[in-house]
Amino acid sequence: MKRASIRASLALLAVAAVLGAAAVLFLSSYWIFLLTGVLITGVALQSLGLVAGRAGMIALCQMSFAGVGAWTVGYLNVAEVPGGLTVWILLGGLAAVPFGVAIGLPALRLRGINLAIVTLSFATAFDTILATITYPGQTAFIQVARPAPFDSDGGYFVFALLFYVAIAVLLEFLARARIGASWLAIRHSERAAAAHGVSIAASKLSAFAISAFIAGISGGLLAGYLGTLVAENFSMMQSLSLYAVAVMAGARFAEGAIIGALLVIMFPEILRRLSLPQDLGNVLFAIGATQALSTGEAMSETFRRLGRKLLPARKQPEKTAPGVLPRPAPGAAPRPVLSIENLTVRYGSVVALDRVNLAVPVGTVAGLIGPNGAGKSTFIDAVTGFLPSYEGSVRLGGEALDRLPAHLRARAGVRRTWQTNRIAPELTVGGYLALAAKGLPETETRKLLAWLDCPDPETPVAKVDAGTRRLLDVAGVVAARPAIVLLDEPAAGQSHEETLRLGRRIAEIPELFGTAVLLVEHDMDLVRSVCAEVTVLDFGQVIASGPPARVLTDGTVKKAYLGITEGSAAA
Question: pTM of the full predicted structure?
Answer without folding.
Answer: 0.87
